[in-house]
Amino acid sequence: HPIPPISTDPTMAPPHFLIFCAAVAAAAAVPSPVVIVPGDGSNQLEARIDKPSTVSWRCTKKQDWFRLWLDTSNLLLATDCWADNIRLLYDEEKDLLSNNVGVFTRVPDFGGTSAFEELDPSLPLHASAAFRKMVQQFVSAGLVRNATLRGAPYDFRYAPSSDVGAAYIDQLRALIEQTANATGKRVSIVSHSMGCLQTLYLLNQQAQSWKDKYVEKWIPLSGPYGGAAKELRLHASGDNEGLPVHALTIREEQRSYETNFWLAPVPRWFGDRVIVSTPARNYTAQDYSDFFDDIGFPAGKKLLRRVEGLTSKVNAPGVDVVCMYSLGVSTPLHFKYGEDGFDNAPAITSGDGDGTVNDISLRLCDRWADDKAQDRSAKVLRFSNISHQGMLTNDAVLRALMAELGMAGPTSS
Question: For 314-326, how does the pLDDT look when each residue is reduced to its tens digit (9 = 90+)?
Answer without folding.
Answer: 999 999 999 999 9
